[in-house]
Amino acid sequence: MKSKKQSKGNLHPKNKHQKGYNFTELCEAYSELKAFVIVNQYGTETIDFANPQAVKAINTALLFKDYRLTFWDFPDDNLCPPIPGRVDYIHYLADLLTASKITKNITVLDIGTGANCIYPLLGNAEYNWSFVGTDIDKKSLDRAEKIIKKNLLSDVITLKHQQDATQIFKGILTADDKFSATICNPPFYKSQEEAMQANARKLEGLGRIDVGRNFSGKQQELWCKGGEKAFIHTYLYESSLFKTNCFWYTTLVSKKENAESMIPSLKKLGATEIKTIPMHQGNKVSRFVAWTFLTKEEQVNFPEFEKL
Questions:
Q1: DSSP notation for 103-164
Q2: Which of the residue ranges 143-147, 154-158, 280-284 would you say has the lowest mean pLDDT?
Q3: For 276-299, what is each residue's pLDDT tens digit?
Q4: 8 Å CB contact between 57 and 32
Q5: What is the pLDDT of residues 167-182, one digit of tens each?
Q6: Beta-carbon neighbour count of residue 2 at 10 Å?
Q7: Across the chain, which distance is largest between two alpha carbons, in Å?
Q8: Residue ranges of domains in the chain
Q9: How many alpha carbons fall within 13 Å on the CB side of residue 100?
Q10: Among candidates 278, 306, 289, which has minimal Cα distance to 88?
Q11: CA gap 193, 59 in Å, rounded
């Protein structure tokens, strides 16, 4: 049998998973993973990434082994995030904050935190950041709250329910709120049909023709009216209504053309600085866009504030 490590490649230098998976260690951290470990045609240990239960098990094992969690569970129909890619966003955001001399008492607003609460969990584990997570789905927030409490993180991660599904920052931010950054993984697709077609292509690439979804995910996690572009442009507009509440607004953007379309819109809205930060996971190229409305003087004087 070949090495027990399965390479991920091209991840952020601080990403714990850039050298791949050690299945012996992962199974020690989360014994339920053992049932899903297989040996591929090259004699290397792996899992069937087209099996949603296997995907959930390996990501749980990663959180237990590398991020000090002792509990992470949510319904199987909720989105199961791939930890290596999610933590890459956290590391690149940390680089951005450090470059802006934001290094103390960092508090991040996570838009659409979901039942898995993944960004707050990773951001706190890696950098001791505090978080406020928002979501339009009360049941997802209830699940996230259970994860937070079971891991004794209630002092550093709090949740807010966005009661209006058409809004993002309205109803969440108040005039006095100050955040170091926002973080967001927007719904990619325009409809369930589009999401299922994309998953079918993904499964075909994995050598499967199943009609199920290997990643799971509810409607608000995967698709919305107008898809990613419509969601992001609402995000941009609403961020301009709270120019001094946050140093860096950021969002993942799956499509390069959508990222490019943000630039003229942000300039019209008064953004003083815009950055597109690429991320690479194997052959996959992703990115997040960051912008601020603060002047240079406002950036220098942006308050250090106490943790939640």
A1: -SS-EEEEET-TTTTHHHHHHHHHH--EEEEEES-HHHHHHHHHHHHHTT-TTTEEEEE---
A2: 280-284
A3: 999 987 777 889 999 999 999 999
A4: yes
A5: 999 999 999 999 999 9
A6: 11
A7: 59
A8: 74-300
A9: 31
A10: 278
A11: 26
Q: Of 34, 100, 90, which Cα lies nearest the Cα of 67?
A: 90
pTM of the model: 0.86
DSSP 3-state percent helix, strand, coil across the chain (nearest 5)? 40, 20, 40
Query: What span, in angstroms and rounded, lies between the C-alpha atoms of 46 and 26?
Result: 11
CATH number of 74-300: 3.40.50.150
Q: What is the C-alpha to C-alpha distance for residues 112 and 135, in angstroms, rounded to an integer?
A: 5
**For residues 108 and 120, what is the distance between their CA atoms, to the nearest angstrom?**
8
Q: Which residue type does 93 have?
A: L
Per-residue tokens: 7: 């390479």
Cα separation, 306 vs 96, in Å, equals 20
Local structure of 213: helix, strand or coil: coil
Q: Which two tokens stand for residue 180?
A: 């170091």
For the range 209-216, what are the long-range contacts, defined as Cβ-Cβ under 8 Å and sequence gap of 24 or more? 210/50, 212/52, 213/52, 214/49, 214/50, 214/51, 214/52, 214/55, 215/52, 215/55, 215/79, 215/80, 216/52, 216/56, 216/76, 216/77, 216/78, 216/79, 216/80
